[in-house]
Input
Amino acid sequence: MPDEPDDLWVDEMAGPVVRPFAVAGGRTRQSGADELDLIAIVVTAEVPMPDPSTLGPEDERILELCLRPRSVAELAADLSLPVGVVRVLLSDLLRRGLVTVNRPAATATGRPDPGLLKEVIDGLRAL
Output
């Protein structure tokens, strides 16, 4: 018998089983055309907060964490959820106007700035 509620979502051999899929409402792709980069910076929008009954616990946690700017990768680590699930949740919050996303500046080659990538990697290592 599981000791904690989170144990219900873990198989000893496989790890997390159902919960991430359930958290994203069964979706595996984010809504909207733009994919959120791992290094995109997310901030809670300065708008009146919606009725808490319209938010899931993960949504509330994202809004709380993003009072300070965070990358998509940091959010995934802080929430202990797969990046794909966090992207789905963020796309929903973005569509509702509850968060803003600042995408990384690209160089002339269309790739993110190497200095910015290094900063994100250093920040993730510090976690």
User: Anything to note?
Assistant: The mean pLDDT is 76.
